[in-house]
Specification:
Oligomer: heterodimer
Strand content of chain A: 5-15%
Structural class of chain B: mainly alpha
Helix content of chain A: 40-55%
Shape of chain B: globular
CATH class of chain B: Mainly Alpha
CATH superfamily of chain B: MetI-like
Low-confidence stretches of chain B: 1-21
Number of domains of chain B: 1
Order of helices and strands of chain A: HHEHEHEHHEEEEEHHHHHEHEEEHHHHHH
Structural class of chain A: alpha+beta
Order of helices and strands of chain B: HHHHHHHHHHHHHHH
Low-confidence stretches of chain A: 1-37
Shape of chain A: globular
Mean pLDDT of chain B: 85
Protein name (chain B): Carbohydrate ABC transporter membrane protein 1, CUT1 family
Radius of gyration of chain B: 24 Å
CATH architecture of chain B: Orthogonal Bundle
Number of strands of chain B: 0
Strand order of the largest sheet of chain A: 2-1-3-12-6
Number of strands of chain A: 12
Number of helices of chain B: 15
Largest sheet of chain A: 5 strands, mixed
CATH topology of chain B: MetI-like fold
Keywords (chain B): Cell membrane, Membrane, Transmembrane, Transmembrane helix, Transport
Pfam family, one (chain B): BPD_transp_1
Largest interface: A-B, 28 and 27 residues
Number of helices of chain A: 18
Largest sheet of chain B: none
Radius of gyration of chain A: 23 Å
Strand content of chain B: under 5%
Helix content of chain B: over 70%
Membrane topology (chain B): Multi-pass membrane protein
Subcellular location (chain B): Cell membrane
Amino acid sequence: MKKTATTGFSRRIFLGAAVTAAGLGLSGCAGGGSPAAGGNVELNFVYWGDSNRAKMTDAAIKVFEEKNPGITVKSEYQDSGPYADKLATRFAGGNPPDVLAMANRSLLEYAQRGTLADLKGLPELNLEKIPATVQSRGEVDGKLYGLATGVTTIGMVVNKTITDQAGVTIPDDKTWSWEDYAKFATEVTQKTGGKVYGAGYDVSTETGPILLARQRGEDFYTEDNKLGVSEDTIREWFQYSVDLRNAGGYPPAGFFEQIGGSPAQSYLAKGTVASQIIPINNFRGYNEAVQGDVVLLRMPGETTDKRRGYSADPTMLWSIAAKSKHPKEAAKLLDFLTNDADGAAETLTQRGVPINPDVAESITSKLSADDTTFVNMMAAIQEDDLPPAYVYPKGASVVADTLKQLATEVEFGRITPADAAKTFLEKSNAAINK
Amino acid sequence: MSVLTKQAPGAAASLAAGPPGRRKRGTARRRNQRSGYLFLLPWFLGMLFTIIPFFASLYLAFTDYNLFTEPNFVGLANFQAMTEDPRLWQSLKVTFIYTFVSVPISLAVALLIALVLNRGLQGLAIYRSVYYLPSLLGGSVAIVMLWRYIFGNEGIVNSFLGLFGIAGPAWVTDPDFSLSTLIVLNVWTFGSPMVIFLAGLRQVPTMYYEAASIDGASRWRQFRNITIPLISPIIFFNLIMQLIGSFQTFTQGYVMSGGTGGPADSTLFYNLYLYQKGFTEFEMGYASAMAWLLLMIIAIFTAINFIASKFWVFYDN
């Protein structure tokens, strides 16, 4: 890191400093600050999300700028799709942002190509309070490339207004099995006369099979950054959706036209499905978007299989570019985002439960009822003994795409779950071992 | 563009009409040349920005460039890997089906509408604009989004079919239908070939038709033996442009599938896959090699067309 900084102190920086100094001189506000600091540093900070997230983030940045005179933060946000594209282009063009949000599945794609800074090498970032289990999710070969923005996990949301009207009892989520969920979903479809499908979860997102694999005693991604899930588990994941569809609990092929998107665009909000799997930090968004009373449940199968499937996962990760011209200031910003209670008071649980326990504690009184529900569930889950979880390997984005593609093939009956599972393992292993 | 110039007898006539003096002629030609280059200027300026990436991509095609670290020369490895890449073959399949179905249909529709408009309708300018409009919009993100809704499960198309008791398929999400939805979208954007056809049709001297009707030729025979041969250079030009354009299709597939080429790779256009390789899998060397393969494919098809054109394109000079 030091080396980069030294060689990076080139004509460009010198000119930049000179121009900045000139600018300050012109505007007559050079002040009495120490000239050694080189005037104002501008950090580029990028993340994905919606305008609500941006509003909260902007408020936190303002606090940061007040606490750190001489550093201004220029932030940009986008939807996750275009964000990923733009990020790749900026890194490729040698003009990466200083501090950036990174998806779990992309972290090692970047880190193992030497584009991210080792956060442990930045003394401005205090990692004292951060649990090792959280740090390990951004770590490879002893180096820390990504730090969780917060933790979350997946859960089942059910529109209780619909199930009450249909007269269907929601099973106890502490002990329910996957069979219980299937039975429940099928009953909802039957009792609503087919107007509402009981289950509407997304088969093609990897968080589902990751949880199932853990319940069955496997690690989807292993400690040595390989694929650890068995063919049988993937087959089971697909087969379950096929069976549930045949039973009527899950909508017919082609029903879901838009996967992902905001809570307001969800099928749960449209009222055409009664339950869905979500990242539970979004619970509030769903409860606000849906007409009716939404309840947050644990995933099925947590106590009925080999072991617990749950883990506290990074909602996303913060990284610093290896080529950042201001690694010191970037680390200060990252430290603020992680350890500053005043900053967290603005962003709350927008990116998951803060990973510094003191910070998490400090915001509890400021949370809305729905966010409190989320935080409480997160805490309750972690009270139990959970098996360890690991960082996503390089190639994980290809794995995600492969799952999506095969899920569609299975949905339209073009391939059997068994064949899909076989293909999934072949393609995923090829991508990861490349 | 040279095809068009050949077709325009008006231009030739105006040149010939000038005084035969050598000097005058020379000035006129020079002036013509100057305006010619002036019109080409934007292209030359654009070229300045593309020439370097052009050769860079040629070099990168033979490397393992991953966007972040220095490229290493790997010889023909990328091209070899392509032959064993099932998704590459899938993307070629999608692109070829799309091209060979949608180009003939959209040319036929464009010619048909041009023929109708050429019959001297009142308010021709308005009709022309209205029919041209989709061409301007067809490649845009907004229209592809609109298309998603029109062909969506609760969209206009399935609602209409529902009136007749037909349960329409999931046009957008069913892999068996998703590509056809995009083909319809492409046919719908027949405006630019139509405008060019219309210009061509207006150049056909009416005296040929007058002479033919005196000889008792039917409408069809007039179309078959006068119109088609005389506008064949225009047909040829449109064919080439449409072929090149549809081989390079990207936006429609990207927006319709949210960038995945789904459902189940059924809209994985060649360029979309190239993009995925370059920017989501970071295999820029491979992606560059793919770009050059596409260039070769387009060059081959254009060459075939030029050779074949000798047998059916008629130049009236």
